[in-house]
Amino acid sequence: MATVAEQLRAAREAAGLTPAQVAQQTKMRVDRVEAVEAGNYEVFTAPVYIRGFVRTYARLVKADESAVMTALDAELAQTARFREHPSLTGEASGTLDRVMLRLSLVPWRLVLPVAALVGGGSGGDADLSGDRSGTDVGSPGRARTGRVSAHRGHERRTAPHPRPAALMNRSSRPVPVGRVPAAGPNSPAAARPPLRVGMVSLGCAKNLVDAEIMLGTLLKDGVEVINDPTQADAVIVNTCSFIDAAQEESVDSILESAAVRDARQPHQALIVAGCLSQRFRDELPRLFPEVDAFMGIDQVARVGTVVREALARRAERLGEGRRAKGEGRRAKGEITQQLAELGQARPESSDRAEAWVEVDARPTYVPDYATPRFRLTPRHFAYVKIAEGCNHPCSFCIIPRMRGRHRSRPLDDIVEEARQLVASGVKELNLISQDSTYYGLDRRPNPQGGLASPARFAAATAALPAEVPTLSRLLRELNALPGDFWIRLLYTHPAHWTDELIATMAACPKVARYVDLPLQHIHDVMLQRMRRETSRAHIESLLGRLRAGIPGLTLRTTFIVGFPGETEAMFEDLLAFIRATRFERLGVFPYSREDGTVAGRMAGQVSGRVRQRRRERAMAVQREVAESIGAAWVGRELRVLVEGEASRGTMASAQVVNWEHGFLRAGEPETLPMRRERWSVARGEADAPDIDGRVYVRGRRAEGTLRGCGW
Fold first, then answer.
1. Strand 387-388 with 407-408, pairing
2. Which residues pair with 684 in a beta bridge?
């Protein structure tokens, strides 16, 4: 049998790709690509990372995945470094190779390493300056934890020698953490080592904020948050359940955590939090007997209680000399199939008593300024959750059922949090919620009935009493805060834009000229079936008003293709709209059929192959639009936020071989200045973190600075 290196090289060459192009498309460092092609696996830390990357590589170049993975298992078994690894010896039930991320999740998914909490501490922020190229996060001289981005093939690396970080006490100065005693120095509890907890957080930025709150609460309670899951007393998996691929990822992470626990730390408690717990709160104890506790959204600020209960449950199980019924004997496919069947029948679990379950059916929690929070973003930007839940009836979405109804934070509370963030050095405030444009409307007098349609929303907004906060008022107050920073508005709904909001954005210089406006489709039949409560005429009018009212605006949107009932003619109509509208930023997703949604029961389901082909065609059209828009920027100067120094791997895969502005010309990549000089990675006002593009700036620039490219 040919070696892995021989199979991958042959397939790559047949596909006409270079190692740098493979690195770019898999989001792996180019030296990792070259190592695999040389049969050198020593640069990886565990078989899980090698398997995930090689599988992604094989799919990218259309190699025989089964043959490649068979050859890989044989080679790993002969590699001295991994010969005794539990995933190769069978101790981990073969689940350790199931945690790599799917490329389809890239636009919305964020993954943290287990307890990504090491690093320098001014301002109470974790130092997460690792970039999306897969840069080593344990580099000498600086303890770092990379915020690993949503690309399959990334390693979830942690710094080998973590230093104490700092937790922001929102009412005063940063409070040092690390081994924080739970009691006074003379108390008996002070002599005992604190509990040690690790975390894996999946999903969107809103889920990330929940993870930050859980970690902050644990640290305040005297719990030590660590990077090595094999040394943790408890591990929390903060799950996502937005679409089926996210569900599979959550299942992967739960099974992997259980396998590592069984192989290395049998007394460790395993806790599942987040949207999967919220969605299947009654059934998960039966499906996951490995898990010791399940917690929902309302419990994020009470995570310490859940951890201690989970530890008690785990000790009780082991003390009785038993394992949970069915524990350690199932594969991921079996569980995901059962989850899919729950949309049709929801039996009551007979195993519920095995785990501590604290999940409210209708969550009501919304964070506030006084809640402890340990930030997991780089210190120069932060996510500010302005509301929780959603009132929209979109037929494809399960979020209202999982996260509850829309509930806004008090305006003064948000402003105070923003004030402290800016004072700590944050240069970009990213306002997030499920529908940011609905902010404040739930606080109106007698808020009965929905306001999803544009007409009803406009009427309700016009009738609001002066004391009811709105998004426009929030933006004005944030803009008035002292300091040099951006305010970025994410997750807006096309039905809820008003002329006042457009005028406010135009009048506030700190508000980024960037609008995130998911449209999902443009054909009226599709919009009706999706229950978007907007029409093509409304959307086209809104886009015209936005571009006319906010000079220099960047529009970002997303579309769903292959929705039930979408005909070829409807899809062609969408393609024509993309060409004509020329969105600066655009993402396309194939429809994901979700049980428990209206769309999941609709007739006219489109095959997976057709959905994927339509996505590829739509992205090809947008690529042409993006290239044309990008060419218009040549020779212009823009203000950027520096993210950090670019690694050699980043620059090797940047593929900037025809940059006509100034000094680069077409040529061999190794001869270009970008490969020889030091560069910094930055983002412009048109680029949201972890979603959009990046800017390369010559020289090494200070991280977190807002500067013009001509400096």
1. antiparallel
2. 640
Q: Where are the alpha helices (H) located in 322-453, listed in sequence order? A: 332-341, 399-403, 411-423
CB-based burial label for 406 (10 Å; 0-12, 13-18, 19+): buried
Strand order through the sheet with 695-698: 695-698, 679-684, 639-645, 706-708
Which two tokens mark 337? 């199939």
User: What are the strands, taking DSSP E only, across 481-550?
Assistant: 486-489, 511-516
Instruction: Note whether 429 and 416 are within 8 A (CB).
Output: no
**What is the distance in angstroms between the CA of the first residue and the CA of the last residue of the chain?**
56
Give the C-alpha separation, 16 to 100, whole Å: 25
Q: Give the largest Cα separation in the chain, rounded.
A: 75
* Distance from C-alpha of 173 to C-alpha of 122, rounded to nearest angstrom: 10
Helix then strand count (H, E) for the chain reads 24, 20
Strands (E), 479-638: 486-489, 511-516, 554-561, 585-590
Say if residues 272 and 302 touch (Cβ distance below 8 Å).
no
Q: Cβ distance 630 to 638 under 8 Å?
A: no
CB neighbour list of residue 170: distance below 8 Å, 6 or more residues apart: 369, 370, 371, 372, 373, 417, 420
Sign of the four-CA dihedral 115, 119, 120, 125 = negative
Are residues 642 and 707 in contact, defined by beta-carbon separation less than 8 angstroms?
yes
Q: Give dist(CA 369, CA 701) in Å, integer.
A: 32
Q: Using alpha carbons only, what angle is made at residue 251 by residues 245 and 253, rounded to the nearest 5 degrees? A: 105
DSSP state of 385: E
Non-local (6+) Cβ contacts of 125 within 8 A are 119, 166, 168, 375, 377, 378, 379, 424, 425
Q: Is 205 helix (H, G, I), strand (E, B) or coil?
A: helix
H/E stretch holding 196: strand 196-201
- CA dist., res. 62 & res. 65, Å (int): 8
- Give the Cα separation of 246 and 440 in Å (integer): 30
122 pLDDT above the threshold of 50: no
Q: What is the DSSP string of 14-61?
A: HHT--HHHHHHHHT--HHHHHHHHTT--TTSSSHHHHHHHHHHHHHHT
Look at phi and psi of residue 544 and say left if phi exceeds 0, alpha if psi is from -120 to 50, else beta.
Answer: alpha
CB distance 563 to 598 below 8 Å: no
Tell me the pLDDT tens digit for each residue of 68-114. 888 988 888 887 766 555 444 443 333 323 322 222 222 222 222 22
Phi, psi (5° rounding) for residue 695? -120, 135
208 within 8 A of 374, measured Cβ to Cβ = no
Using CB atoms within 10 Å of the CB of residue 393, give its burial: 0 to 12 exposed, 13 to 18 middle, 19+ buried: middle
DSSP string computed for 135-166: --SS-TTS-------S-TT------SSPPP-E
Q: Which residue has the tokens 């949201």?
A: 688
Whose tokens are 């490219």? That residue is 709
Please state the rounded mean pLDDT for residues 365-378.
Answer: 89
**pLDDT tens-digit map of 137-191:** 222 222 222 222 222 222 222 222 222 233 332 232 222 223 333 344 444 444 5
What six digits make up the tokens of 689? 């973190």
**pLDDT > 90? residue 197:** yes
- Give one DSSP letter per residue of 274-335, joined into a string: EHHHHHTTTTHHHH-TT-SEEE-GGGGGGHHHHHHHHHHHHHHHHHTT---TTTT---HHHH
